[in-house]
Amino acid sequence: MRGALGGPRVLLRRLREVMAEQVSAQDRLDKIVVLIAANMVAEVCSVYVLRVDQTLELYATEGLNRDAVHLTVMRVDEGLVGHVAREAESLALSDAHNHPEFSYRPETGEEIYNSFLGVPILRAGNTLGVLVVQNRARRTYTEEEIEALQTTAMVLAEMIASGELTALAKPGAEPAVRRPLHLKGVVLADGLGLGHVVLHEPRIKVTNVIADDVVKETARLDAAIGKLRHSIDLMLEDDGLAKAGEHRDILEAYRMFAHDRGWMHKMREAVLSGLTAEGAVERVQSDTRARMMRASDPYLRERLHDLDDLANRLLRELIGRARGTEREALPENAILVARNMSPAALLDYDRSRIRGLVLEEGGTTSHVTIVARALGIAAVGQVENAAGLADPGDPMIVDGQAGEVHLRPPGDVEEAYAEKVRFRARRQAQYAALRTRPSVTKDGVHIELHLNAGLLVDLPHVAETGAAGIGLFRTELQFMIASAFPRISEQLKLYRAVLDAAGERPVTFRTLDIGGDKVLPYMRTVEEENPALGWRAIRLGLDRPGLLRSQLRALLRAGAGRDLRIMFPMVAAVEEFDRARAIVERELTHLRKHGHGLPEKVYVGAMVEVPSLLFQLDEILSRADFLSVGSNDLVQFLYAADRSNVRVADRFDPLSPPALRAFRLVAEAGQRHGKPVTLCGELASRPLEAVALAALGFRALSVSPAAIGPVKAMMLELDVSAARKVLLPLLEDKSGMADPRAALSVFAKASGLPL
Is residue 46 within 8 Å of 61, Cβ to Cβ? Predict the structure, then answer.
């Protein structure tokens, strides 16, 4: 390194010695800046730390006026130091005074220095401060010198992140690494959760960043890269990708990145500068993350997730830890934070200890969201960089009512939310008081409120809420959390438990809705371009009749001596329903032949979630005993908007005239044929949407357990005939300007409906 004394490796070794000394935080910082200045032959070395108020404070300096330490403070939009912090990129200038952002601070005495080199102090892509060297001469800093300073900044990042500098700060001016953050997202599941962060995919903590043997570390890095490439190749050779659990296009992107020469060159250069292999991976990924987080191109920002995942895989190779094996005991009040997760992964945790869920992705109708609602877990999605900002154990508040997350909240915010939790508990007590009251509107219309369920943990909610029954029992959840295909005896045990818990109340069992995004870990998957439109649900069951027959046999045996309701999902044509019903009849014949007890009555129905069935309603109702509308899928198919794709999932309103007209078709067809029709999608769990459904003619809704109280409280105050007068004319409006949601909101407010 030109002008340096001993090069970056010597600097790092000396830094390690300083870090090991038993001295105060200020003494340690003072020694570090002296060491850096000497090694880089610089007249000045300074450390600026980003504070909670988003200003930069001078924490240590060699060469500037020492009296300015802890007195010099600048905004992130001020000066060259602010520029480095704001852009999270290094800045090297031979004539700093002529830079348009140069800002002179007289108390520091820096006017005599012409050359400037500043590098951001980064951790997980987040700026914690700025490290600066300056020279009087107009000097061009080399790439090697910039690299050395960036490497040194890693050591400072860990020092800041450890909280060692907090004691040096004035109240209200603490380092920003631990600052409270108010993050915005979207509501996934209603509720309030107060607890501490648990990362679903824990970051690999690199404890040793300074190498003893550069040759050895280079060999370790090369070996880990080789293993990583080999593991990705093996996953791509598996046609079904069953073991990988990821789509081929993602793995192809991983392979492309894993073979990227620029990525590997940067990591090798970092090792040659004196870092361990792990330190090099972390350093390069932190720099990459900082740049890509500030990119405006959505494609580049999306690739950041791929690079993060790839870097974590590489770190696991280096430390010999398998992916997904970390399942330590949860704290009493756990807030799970993840990029995204499957329903099975959520169910794998001790649910009694989970208070909240925060996802960087996640749509309002995704399946993990549905499970979170079923479990009563407050959840917020689309929280940008949540897993990068939070550290394990951080206090966190999840506001599943406003779609907000408070990370490391100040005391007053925490107390305010504690009071909200107490208020919510009182409100729940008020809802509980309505448990035995019939759900009858002010104008005498009876609206049955059923539960959506899918797990044994849901069953106590039937009695607790006073629900009329279980309008949708998702049988696939048992299959998704099992390590092997559940035997008939295991299925039989679950279905009997459900019926026993419901007592005299009806239960509607939906047969397996697997395929698409609901993958069974032990079942070979089929690669499809559009899995939501592919081989799933009833299609898979009819093509694999053994699978469907075993489930139907367990259901029919469980229903012995009682009424049984079976519903087939994703029926697109009456012929599919006919074939499925014929399998039910064959299984009944089999059970009679072998002397098994039979249900008193078997009701067989279909879900309306494929738009083609809207044009076969008379035909299907002449065959089916009942229908149930799956609003989540029906709306996604109506608008060709993938509900798991956050870019389009909320683009279309389910209270828009086209969607409401589709729902009305089903309600009116049920009335014509005298057959019960229920809506069991998540739509019914929101009071305003429930107003619309009642006005359209639905007399049975199936909702999440937490929604029974709010929806019933609203129904008791609702005048359905008045709501119809508001809504139905809007569905006949041909101007294209009708806004049912706005009109119903005005109606609800004027009517005093509790929403």
Answer: yes
Which three-class secondary structure state does DSSP give residue 565?
Answer: strand
Q: In whole angstroms, what is the distance from residue 117 CA to residue 150 CA?
A: 10
Closest-CA residue to 606 (of 597, 598, 596, 616):
616
678-724 tens-digit pLDDT = 999 889 999 999 999 999 999 999 998 888 999 999 999 999 999 99
**Strands of 181-184's sheet in order across:** 181-184, 404-407, 395-399, 192-199, 334-338, 354-359, 378-381, 186-189
Residue type, 186: V
Residue type, 526: V
How far from chain centre, in Å, is Cα 728? 37
Taking CA atoms, 113 is separated from 37, 43, 110, 580, 646, in Å, by 14, 8, 6, 82, 50
Paired tokens of 164: 């060692």
DSSP character for 604? E
DSSP letter at 518 equals B
- Alpha-helical (H) ranges within 189-247 are 214-237
Q: How far apart are CA 305 and CA 359, in angstroms?
A: 13
Name, of 294-308, 454-468, 475-489, the range with top average pLDDT. 454-468
Q: How many CB atoms lie within 10 A of CB 66?
A: 12
Q: CA–CA separation, 232 vs 316, rounded Å?
A: 14
The string of pLDDT tens digits covering residues 7-52 is 667 777 788 888 889 999 999 999 999 999 998 899 999 999 999 8
Give residue for tokens 């009942």.
Answer: 626
Cα(359)–Cα(455) distance, rounded to whole angstroms? 22
* pTM assigned to the model: 0.61
Place of tokens 């000394």: 21
pLDDT digits (tens, 9 = 90+) for 187-224: 998 889 999 999 988 777 776 778 888 899 999 999 99
Catalytic residues: 367, 680
243-297, pLDDT tens digit by residue?
434 445 556 666 777 787 888 888 998 888 888 998 889 888 888 877 776 665 5
Structure tokens at 8: 């970056």
Is residue 12 within 8 Å of 151, Cβ to Cβ?
yes
- C-alpha 457/C-alpha 464 separation (Å) is 12
Q: Residue 571 in contact with residue 591, Cβ under 8 Å?
A: no
Query: CA-CA distance, 503 to 108, in Å (whole number)?
Result: 79
